[in-house]
Design a protein that fits this description.
The complex is a heterodimer. Chain A is an all-alpha fold. Chain A is built from eleven helices and two strands; from the N terminus they run αααβααααααβαα. About 5% of the residues of chain A have low confidence. Chain B is an alpha+beta fold. The chains are: A mainly alpha, B alpha+beta. Chains A and B meet through α1, α2, α3, α4 and α5 of A and β1, β2, β3, α2 and α3 of B. Bound molecules: protoporphyrin IX containing FE and iron/sulfur cluster (2 copies). Protoporphyrin IX containing FE binds next to α3, α4, α5, α7 and α9 of chain A.
Chain lengths: ~325, ~190
């Protein structure tokens, strides 16, 4: 870290002479002239001046910021995003190998219960497909040069990173629409309830050994795990969208360079969290919970699945008569 | 091996913009409309403490642009000059955020203000194309370093405020000047 400061320091010092030369008090200012030390400290403090250049930020000779953000990105965030994607996949595969999946007791009933509208299913995929592409392209932008580039040819690499940027920029738009609709329209079913604590204590009953075995905690329309994912997605989706907008439309928002760097960091941190949750979410829906995927295909779920995983919701719709079977 | 640096002596710079013009002229083939690789900034203009400084890429030893670029398209020549490959650049703008000197610039005009390929001062050392090829001229401009010459801006600086060359030589010249200029009471060393 100190190396950064030192090297930049040397570059800057070369510009304006070494400060050791600028002995305050010993050096006199004649006729309103500033000493080298004074000029240097003004420039270092980010002084702006007049210039004929119309390029962005050109009125300011030196912009200083905490250079540690560079190492934060390359040494911490990039490997963390790799871990959030590939590490989580490995962990989940191992977990399923040891633990097995959550089977439907008594198998599929064959009776399908209405759970999501066609509109709900479409906004889910409107957000989800771009989200997956954003994860893969974002990973290429953040970690590609460290983890992919060394193993592929130069030509392939430049095509890959170019495609990543183009796809990322385009997919950002449907993602944000999907995110906004899901967050607003689904929030009322995702409010925390007391029984969610018990669900968490037994990890949803998905663990097939030890004291957790065979547990079936109460859950409403959404269980505690889904709620946690929903709110993480709502919050970090907002952070990732806001920071992404700053980066995508600099002409519109005119962020300072430091703000752009902060946006980059917030964007990556949110990406790590969303990625880790996404992997868990995908595993739960596709392999861990037998019959779960059907919900986001047809909008209906098997009756056994409903009573096993969302008993309170199932009881409620039975009672108030909103239970609807697929014809 | 030399380590090339620029140095601008603010006590000599008279804000004539000769360096800016020299650069524009020398690298014209590569410069899109609105881009100027070098600029002169005057602080406290018309007031006490007025001072001018010529700024372009400083070819940093541990360059932030190089560290942040997602396409990893920067490289350092054996002379310590920081260059980049425009074919690999994706126009993300990270280098502009990270550069302390505002050196990276982008041609405007893409859809929704999307950035084009980044351009910056090359220390008149061209780019990753074959020396003096058409491709090099079109993308990066002049390659004076390959001819054993220094950047045009510093060569044409009328007051020799802007110096370019090996870091040790350049700073030795500057130290000598400071010593010579030193006011009567100045004690240094
Ligand atoms: C699931 C959602 C998303 C994920 C996982 C994601 C991930 C990432 C990652 C990891 C990076 C690289 C950061 C770095 O290099 O430090 C990045 C860059 C970027 N992201 Fe996202 N992002 C998402 C959504 C968005 C959205 C909604 C927008 C726009 C509103 C956006 C706009 C950008 C931009 C502009 C960049 C800079 C690179 C470029 O110009 O393409 N991202 N993203
Ligand atoms: S572009 Fe900026 S950060 Fe990169 S070497 Fe030049 S001055 Fe340093
Ligand atoms: S704009 Fe180009 S050179 Fe600058 S960081 Fe992005 S890819 Fe690298």
């Amino acid at each position: 870290m100190n190396k950064w400061f030192k090297q930049i320091g040397i570059a800057i010092a070369l510009l304006f002479s070494v400060t050791a030369f600028a002995h305050d008090g010993a050096e006199h200012t004649h006729d309103g002239q500033a000493t080298e030390g004074q000029i240097w400290s003004q420039l270092k403090a980010g002084a702006e001046g007049r210039t004929t250049s119309t390029s962005e930020f050109h009125a300011q000779p030196i912009n200083t910021y905490d250079l540690r953000v560079l190492e934060l990105r390359s040494d911490i965030l990039a490997p963390a995003l790799m871990a959030a994607l590939f590490g989580m996949i490995i962990i989940f595969v191992l977990f399923i190998k040891v633990n097995g999946i959550s089977k439907l007791h008594g198998g599929f009933s064959g009776k399908l219960v209405y759970r999501w509208s066609k509109f709900d299913v479409s906004i889910h995929w409107l957000g989800a497909i771009p989200c997956l592409l954003l994860i893969l392209t974002g990973l290429t932008l953040l970690a590609g040069r460290f983890f992919f580039q060394p193993y592929i040819g130069e030509g392939l690499w430049s095509n890959l990173v170019y495609a990543a940027k183009q796809v990322h920029d385009i997919m950002a738009i449907p993602f944000m629409i999907g995110w906004a609709l899901m967050t607003v329209l689904w929030a009322k079913n995702q409010l925390p309830k007391m029984y969610d604590i018990k669900w968490m204590m037994v990890v949803g009953g998905y663990i097939n050994f030890g004291p957790f075995k065979g547990k079936h905690p109460d859950a409403g329309f959404a269980n505690a795990g889904e709620k946690l994912w929903f709110w993480a997605f709502a919050v970090f989706g907002l952070v990732i969208s806001a920071s992404g907008m700053l980066l995508l439309f600099p002409n519109l928002f005119e962020p300072s360079r430091t703000l752009s760097l902060i946006a980059l960091i917030l964007h990556s941190v949110s990406a790590i969290i969303i990625t880790a949750f996404s992997i868990v979410h995908i595993f739960m829906a596709t392999v861990m919970s037998e019959g779960g995927m059907e919900c986001m295909v047809s909008g209906y779920c098997d009756e056994t699945w409903a009573s096993q995983h969302h008993n309170l919701w199932f009881d409620e719709i039975k009672e108030n008569g909103t239970l609807k079977y697929k014809e | 091996m030399a380590t090339m640096k620029f140095l601008c002596d603010t006590k000599r710079c008279i804000e004539c913009n000769g360096c800016v013009t020299a650069c524009k002229n020398e690298n014209d083939s590569a410069l899109e409309w609105g881009i100027q690789r070098r600029r002169v900034v005057t602080i406290n203009d018309g007031e006490k403490g007025e001072a001018s400084i010529s700024v372009a890429c400083m070819h940093c030893s541990d360059a932030p642009c190089m560290a942040v670029c997602p396409a990893n398209c920067f490289y350092k020549t054996e002379d310590g000059i920081v260059l980049h490959d425009k074919d690999t650049c994706i126009g993300c703008g990270y280098c502009l955020y990270a550069c302390p000197f505002g050196a990276p610039q982008f041609p405007q005009g893409g859809a929704f203000g999307a950035r084009g390929k980044m351009d910056k001062c090359t220390f008149c050392a061209g780019g990753p194309e074959e020396n003096h090829s058409d491709a090099e001229r079109q993308k990066y401009g002049a390659n004076r370093v390959a001819e054993g010459k220094l950047p045009m801006c510093a060569e044409l600086c009328a007051t020799k405020s802007l110096l370019a060359g090996d870091a040790e030589i350049v700073s030795a010249i500057f130290r000598e000047r400071v010593a010579y200029r030193g006011s009567k009471n100045a004690i240094w060393g």
